[in-house]
Amino acid sequence: MVRTAIAVLLGVALGIAALGAQAPDSQVEKGKEVFTRMKCLLCHKLGDKGGALAPVLDGVARRRDAESMRRLLEHPDKEMKDPQYKVTMPAFPFKDGELDELVAYLQTLK
Ligand code: HEC
Q1: pTM for this entry
Q2: Distance, CA 41 to ligand 1 centroid (Å)?
Q3: CA dist 3 to 8, 10, 12, 45, 95, Å?
């Protein structure tokens, strides 16, 4: 019972945090740079660029929230489920802040 109440409170708190958490433009710009540097388009397609080995990233922010993107990028080995893909997303060696920047950028792809 107490546990449920805590879970509900936590959910509300996270929801409010998410509402206020509009990433600043500079973070989005940096994330775009990380995205290019790490060559995500070797597998993914965005607009008319990129590969066909992985899901198209146009509109990905409508399918996944920041938290689920973060989980996937940190532990692709655990989070990848769809058997239609023949490749596994590598676990990228993100430095301080890079994962946040990347997720901020990916969240703009609506
Ligand atoms: C070696 C190929 C490969 C590379 C390189 C790669 N990915 Fe992926 N990625 C995949 C595959 C395959 C999936 C599908 C996983 C699944 O659904 O099981 C995926 C899934 C995703 C998803 C979820 C897509 C969705 O529709 O829900 C995101 C977001 C993502 N990748 C971001 C990135 C980013 C950012 C990079 C660069 C840092 C990157 N990926 C590099 C292969 C790759």
Answers
A1: 0.84
A2: 9
A3: 9, 10, 14, 42, 35
